[in-house]
Each structure stands twice: as C-alpha cells, then as structure tokens.
Amino acid sequence: MAKTVGQKRQAAQASMDSEEGARRTRSKVMNEESETTVTHSKRATRSSDQSGSSSLSVETVIAKSNGYGSSPANKNGTQGIDITPASALPKRKFVKKGTAQKVASSRKTTKPKVTKRTSESLRNARSVARAATKAAHRHSSSSLSEVSIPVREKKTEVAKDEASEDDESDGPSYWLMKAEPDSRIEKGKDVRFSIDDLKDATEPEAWDGVRNAVARNNMRAMMTGDMVFFYHSNCKKPGIAGTMEIVREHSVDETAFDPEHPYYDAKSTREKPKWCVVHVEFRRKFPELVTLKELQRFAKPGGVLENMQTLRITRLSVSKVTRKEWDFIHTLVVTDDEHAATPD
Fold first, then answer.
1. Would the pTM count as exceeding 0.85?
2. Between 58-65 and 5-51, two packed helices, what is the crossing angle to 10 degrees?
C-alpha cells in the first residue's frame, strides 16, 4: 500500500527524532567517560607524587583508564587520544635510599674540632685571665697596711708551686731565706746580717729589704709556726747556716718609705705599700754549713733536690722548701760530735 505524503513526513520526522536521541545518548555517554577519565587521572597523579615511583604521563593514564595500552601497537585504538611512548617520557630522578638522610644529617650543626692551635689559644686565654685576677688581688691587698693571712689552703700560687705530695696541709710549711753575713755598705749603712746576729737578738727580728715580687708573695704566704732555713748568701762560702721560726706574720715594710735607707722604693707609698716583712726568731745554728756545693750534688736529674726552688732560681732570696727537702737537708747536717771529731 502506497504511503501517503503525510505518512512519509511522519516517518521522516520519527527517524530524525530517533537519530537526535541516539546522538544525545552518545554525547551523554562520552561526557560520563570523560569525567571518569579525568577522575582516574587526578588520582593517578596524586599517587605518583606521593610515592615518587610512577613515571606515567597524564595522557598515558587517560589511555589506560579507557582500556588502551601505552605501546605504539595500541596507538590506533585510542580513539584520537595522543599516547606518548614511554621512551619519550621525561626521566624522573630517583634518590637512592639513605641519600636524603645523609643530606639532612650533613645540614646539622656539628661541634667544631678542637685543634692543637685552638687548645693553645684557650690555654693562653686562661693564663691571661689568671694573671689579671692575680694582679687585681695584689692591687687590692697592697692598699692595706697589714693584710690578714687566709687559711693555709688559700696560699698564693707562687708559694705552693713547689709543694710536694709529702707535705702535710695541717702542719707547718718550710722556707729558705737568704741574708748576707759579710759587711757591705749601702748609703752609708752596713746591710750585713748573719745567723749569729739573729741569735744575739733580744726580740723577734723583722726580715726587711725584700724587693722581689716572687719572694714577697712567699712571705705573704708564711704563717706563724712555719720553719725556715737561714742561708748565708753573697759570700765566699754560701750555704745553710741554721734554722729560725716565723713568729709574726707579714706586715708593711717601713724601710721602703725611708729615702735614707738602702732599700728605699719611691713607688711604694703608705696608701699603696708594695713590700712587707715577717718577724723571725732564732732556733738553731748548725755546727757546719750545709754548703751550696753539697746541695748541688743532689740537684742533678733524679736527685732529691732536683726541684728545689732556690737551686732552680738562684737569685730568689725567699723560696719554698718541701717537707721532703727539709728532712733530707737535715740528714746532711753534721752533728756536734762529728764536728768535734773533725780537725780544724
């Protein structure tokens, strides 16, 4: 039966509507696939950034999400999606295991190495600091006319430099003090003073005229009851003549203020006195001198008197003596019987 013109028009319209619906359906499906692909791409990219182990490009991920491979063989089936070959992808730099930790540890602050030069600089700085402290102490103590002596543990560093391990901290300390037994005139005054002069004294004798800083510091460290060797110096036969005892601790040396005295010092004033004296009393005169040559016999390396201060610093008039040195020197003293048996 032949179709009428109206039926043909209706059939054509229905066919057009059917094609339009199919077109819309295909467009909707393609949009949904595109959204799915983008979602997969974002997830793959995020996962790649976190793990650092994926080198796929966004296009490759999109292709794989649509079921296509990344090899050139599948290029024709990608429906227009451009697939980049793996060989053309930029190479990702991988960090070897442990490298990040090494880099991080290298950035940590490390302590500077202490070299020999650094340690010497530190020691020099400490020495300068100690010297400054001593100078400040001397300046403050010298402004007093009579300085009180601290406990024995706080003696000056110079005085205890030669201290022996055998010394008893709660016993007396031992010293050696030099005087000139032969006459010598200075500014019209005889400065001689021997063991016999001390023996004949009716009261404690002030040991004045010391003008050396180390010797003065040793005198400041002396305490009542300390024992002292009396040493004859600047004579034909120098040596130890006997012993004496400290009976009064140090006070200002008044002779330093007298312009007529042989040991006058214009830099020492009553406001800032520099020098001091101690008072001593006679205790014993040896039958014979313990001569300097006899002492030097035992001052060789390894000898008992090797480190004796007066033998190492020969011009020091007041020096420290250890307990070991004190006892040994007494073994060198000739007894009265031996002296009587010795022909003149």
1. no
2. 130
